[in-house]
Here is the input.
Amino acid sequence: MLPAELEPFSCARMSRVSDKSYSVYILWSDSAHRFYIGISEDPQSRLGQHNAGTQHSWTARHRPWRLIWTEKHTDYPSAKKRENELKAQKGGKELFAKTGIDPALFPQLGS
Here is the structure.
C-alpha cells in the first residue's frame, strides 16, 4: 500500500486553496454492506473513481458503491471536522442520527 501522499486521489493531495466548496459524502456498498465516508470537491466524480477500482484500495475491494448522502461545507477544515465526526460513529445508530439517513434502508445492518 502506498503512503497517503503518493495516492493519486487521497485527501493529502486534494486542493485546499480553491474557491470551491467541499462535500462530505457517504457511499454504500451493497456487496459488502459497508459505508465509506470521504471528502471531495465533486462527490459524483469521486464516486466514479471509487467504482473504477484502479487503485489497490479498500474501496476497490467492495465495489460497486452508491452515493447515498452529501453535505456541503464552505472550507476544507469544516469538512474534515465533519468527516471525522461521522467516521467516529463506525456506521452505527449515531451515524443515522447525525445525517438523517433512514436506517430502514439498510436492514442488512440489523439496526
Remarks:
- Confidence is low (pLDDT under 50) at residues 1-14.
- The longest helix spans residues 76-87.
- The chain has four helices and three strands.
- The two ends are 33 Å apart (CA to CA).
